[in-house]
Amino acid sequence: MHSAALNAPRRAAMAEYDTVLVWIVTGLLAIGLVMVYSASIATAEAGKFTGHQSAYYLVRHSIFISIGLVAAVLAFNVPTQVWQKYAPYLFLLGVVLLLLVLIPGVGKVVNGSRRWLSLGIFNLQPSELMKLFAVLYAADYAVRKGAVKDQILKPFFPMFLAIFLVGTLLLSEPDMGAFVVILAIAMCTLWLGGFNLKIFGALTVAVPLAFAALIFSSPYRMERVVGFMNPWADPYGKGYQLSHALIAFGRGEWFGVGLGGSVEKLFYLPEAHTDFLLAVTAEELGLVGVATVLVLFAWLIVRAFAIGRQAAMSERLFPALVAQGIAVWLGVQAMINIGVNMGVLPTKGLTLPFLSFGGSGVVVNLVAIAVLLRIDYENRRVAKGLPI
Q1: Alpha carbons 133 and 90: distance in angstroms, whole number
Q2: Which residues pair with residue 123 across a beta bridge?
Q3: Model pTM?
Q4: Which of 4, 51, 132, 239 would you call most buried, defined as having the most Cβ atoms within 10 angstroms of its Cβ?
């Protein structure tokens, strides 16, 4: 009895945040850590800059996860009111970083894309930060413009200008994948915020037309679309990456060829440990492994929307929209990456959240989860009548 009484406060403290969400993210990180190591061994052993160390990417990925966890702990201790107060300034910071990327000699070019800022020991990808800043800014914007949300032009024009600016900068890198995610965040946040539905009817027509114009105006994007539609027409050229991803899925069948047994990762499938990590997962762990990843992502998104709904029920609009914006962000990015790996979407250069190798992405994703946990923590305190 005495021991149970002592443990009761500890159990109550642990129940102040969503432990299920923590376990979901832990599961995704664990799968990602194992698969990044498996998918990168051959590349790491062959690379001069890696020192021919087979665990090079594993060590770096572990370091990024550790940095992300420290950043997440710090972010969890920031009240949502503080995030709301500084949301516009964070958005401006993101714009400045995107501008710096485009300056010759400042932005780092990799595989023809200028997306990184070199910070010495690692590269910062501002577009990853911009996804979080876009969630916070869109939520704050929806709250500030709530009085005129039934109108059409007045509440949407400033947001349109902001997204147009960010889109122009991202497409100049080019990083169309990040632009698609940020556009989805902005549109869904305004819709969830109760803004006039007529504008979304117009956007459902205008956005596809705008994307068609972007595709036809750029030979680079046109080639990607053509390669995606029929990769077997040019399996050694435009369709090379996708054709090998599909081969990996086909080899995996139900239970995979076994962990470490992938052939495609042996210099056949480019970016096996980043953008196409799911293809290697499919080859080694089969349909069961891919289904596990899909279930974990679906569960995470359901939990995020549930946390947002709880915040909305307590009339906390900003936290509610942030939680739902994070759900949209992670859900859309995961859906695009999975679609690209399975050949149902053109290549976008987006990583799979929590799994793929990539420092900035892993750190920012963990910070986003910390913000989500903070919203849930505040929900529980509000429900108990406690200060937040």
Answers
A1: 6
A2: 118
A3: 0.90
A4: 132
